[in-house]
Amino acid sequence: PRAHHKSINMQSTLPASWYREPGFYQLERRAIFSKSWILVSHIHQFNEPGKYARYEMAGYPFFIIKDRAGNINAFLNICRHRAFPIVHENEGKAFVLSCKYHGWSYSMNGNLAKAPRFDHVEDFDKEEYKLYKVHSHVDRLGFFWVNLDAAEKPTLSWEEQFGGVDTQPRLENFDMSDYEYDHTWSMEGKFNWKTLIENYNECYHCPTAHPGLAPFFKGNKQMNYGLEKYWVAHLGAKGEERSGSVSPTYMFPNASVTLTPVFFYMMSIVPTSATTSLMRYEVYRSKSATPEQVKEKLDFFSQVESEDKWLANGSQANLNSDTYMTGPFHPDVEEAVVYVIGRVKGMLHEHVDEEKKRGAEWWPARRGPVQATKSSAEQDEAFCRGVCENSALRGGSAPEGLAW
């Protein structure tokens, strides 16, 4: 192995327990998906006022909508009254966001417009019951990112995690104004989200599992030639920084973008439980490409994604079996995987250290009660926490006896 890879020689994979334990998945929700900037869409999908799209990320529901002023906003998909979802379709158009439970309605910028029969309720302030806003960022290429951190200022800045990802020299020859939103499609997978993310970040498996990808690796091209902050640039050669050819980039924790002259698509591996995920794809076609060109390329990439799903499902089945613990990483061709899981481990350990200081679990995405109901809400929450932490309810098995 080359000398600069020496530090990762014979490094082991993560233990199988990291891919199947429900409690560990909840830690990932707190430590990673509550605090990271997550790539979810592109502004081309929101091309007119009222256009919206619905998302869920590791159990956190939200939607994106363009308002009349041209702003693209993200909100939790939760009515502030009794938590019913605001939007129910994956995509749509609406100028008023109405809850179909009790009729509360909101404007496209999240303001509460109507709360039936609350007009004369003492201490009710409409300003305190706006939709929960989600932090968002649009990068220089028009990609739309969210951060679910409930704090006024996210724990991590976008620049800290992804500064430079939108100014890669190899992307300069792509004119993003030439693309338009086409469609979204998805597949359900029986695997932990990391299983597929690790698969994506190496092509050690490609000669065996993806024979159709062989032409991409002719000459001196490498699977990964840029490990930067929280992203990895794939499929390049050192002398082809401005090639304008197929250019995939992985963005931590669970997304990637593959830019081609014919279309680009965004992949999100959305965790739905400790052992299941949704493979979600947004497709944007070049305005100059013919339907036949788009179909040919999309069929090819869809076949590759289906092959990866089969691989991830098979690996996860054995990770669930409690017969395998760890294996070895190749220090060269699996370098990016080692880099990515290093980011995972770092965020998890940092979060656990913070929870130890606080003496309690820390859920950064959790919104607190408004001032008028804060005292009673906190008392009720403390009662629930006390019951669950001092009984077998915490583990879900039959209780041997409550603390009292």
From TrEMBL:
Molecular-function GO term, any one: choline monooxygenase activity
Which co-factor is required?
Answer: Fe cation
Domain named Rieske is located at: 37-135
Which pathway?
Amine and polyamine biosynthesis; betaine biosynthesis via choline pathway; betaine aldehyde from choline (monooxygenase route): step 1/1
Pfam families linked = Rieske, Ring_hydroxyl_A
Q: Which UniProt keywords apply?
A: 2Fe-2S, Dioxygenase, Iron, Iron-sulfur, Metal-binding, Oxidoreductase
Enzyme superclass (EC)? oxidoreductase
List the GO biological process terms: glycine betaine biosynthetic process from choline
- Which EC number(s) are documented for this chain? 1.14.15.7
Q: By its UniProt entry, which InterPro entries does this protein fall under? A: Rieske_2Fe-2S (IPR017941), Rieske_2Fe-2S_sf (IPR036922), Ring_hydroxy_dOase_asu_C_dom (IPR015879), Rng_hydr_dOase-A (IPR001663)
Report which reactions are catalysed by this protein. choline + 2 reduced [2Fe-2S]-[ferredoxin] + O2 + 2 H(+) = betaine aldehyde hydrate + 2 oxidized [2Fe-2S]-[ferredoxin] + H2O
Q: What does this protein do?
A: Catalyzes the first step of the osmoprotectant glycine betaine synthesis.
Which family does the entry's similarity section mention? Belongs to the choline monooxygenase family.
Protein name stated in the entry: Choline monooxygenase, chloroplastic
Q: Which organism is it from?
A: Colletotrichum gloeosporioides (Anthracnose fungus)
